[in-house]
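Hey, can you fold this?
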Amino acid sequence: SLPSELIYENKMELFSSYRIQTSYNKVLKRIGDIFISLFLLIILFPLILLTALIIKLTSKGPIFYHQKRIGLYNKEFVMHKFRTMKTDAEKGKAMLTIKGDSRITAIGKIIRPLRIDELPQLINILKGEMSFVGPRPERRELMEKITEQHPLFYKRLLVKPGLTGWAQVKFQYANSIEEMNKKLSYDLYYIKSISLLFDLKILLYTIETVIFKRGAL
């Protein structure tokens, strides 16, 4: 990745070379997203159903967690996840998850490291709100807080947010604004280098990350 400070100093040169207008990014990637998300929704349906049932039986509250996130070109959308926290986890205030977070439910501690809680986002991918690979979508209030100190954070909105990404597989979970800024350099490097081979590399890293349960809280 590129250090965020270096990116800031050379932003005009770097942003002019971003590969967001390629046929792969504009067309082929979307076709792949549709077919892969449909395929995974079909073969993983038993796991999705079982997870929903366990959440319902082991904790009070809804099965799914729906939250507004910021996507491509600053457009807001509703992201779907399996609920892994207590229903009053945030109490109306956006908060980053920390290590050993007491708000996480018993089933959440199991499915979060395995990324099973992210499976409902296959619907977001199918609808075109997200892609398989890209920067993780953030909440508007967190985006505004982060960009007060690091304006380049909005450059992540040049591409669709992803279920996984270069920052997710190469950097630990960020639980502070400073760590979010460090992850930014990975996201901007990805946007500058988008290609089929790079996406495949990230997907392979993602499988490895899930197997060894790295990065999730």
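Oh, and this one too while you're at it.
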Amino acid sequence: KRAEALIPLLEGAQEYWAIGEFVHLGPPAVPVLVNALNHPSRRVRMNAIEAMYLIKDKSVLPALTTLAANSGEISTVREKALRVAIRLDPTQTLPALQAMAKDRDEAIRNTVVSQSRQIKDKAVVELLIPMLADDVPSVADGAMRALYGLTGRSVERQDFLQSTREQRRAWSKDWAQWWGLVGRITTPPLRPSS
């Protein structure tokens, strides 16, 4: 009951104190925080996610990944849910990343490419390669940078920010062919070659 009484305080002047109280209560408060993910206030949802991160109980992962993949939720809440889920356990976030990679919102797709860098997994490479052909050059460029971090591959004359959609499609096919031959995660050199 104490945890439930703290939910309204996750918004307003006492929100940081309320987050601290949730952290003090620890894992027994997690079900109340999970329920707070349905609260009408964006601020309450954001602070509930923050409290979950500070408690560090991995039982919240299904709720966070479901929230991140929910296209009906606002993008800032989805982004925070994904970031926290990846920090708690990146191995359980792949389904959310896959759903978010196809989202209509450019900000969500950019979040996918930036957060994918945290996950050293072949499935993430296979998720990022089609994103090289994204309609938005910044998403494609972010995918290329994440792929470089995961594979160490740098290709000269592939400027995704200044490219056409047709060029990005061709480069995506090239990356897919290369990955089909190599198919392994490597550590890249410290600096990409220009």
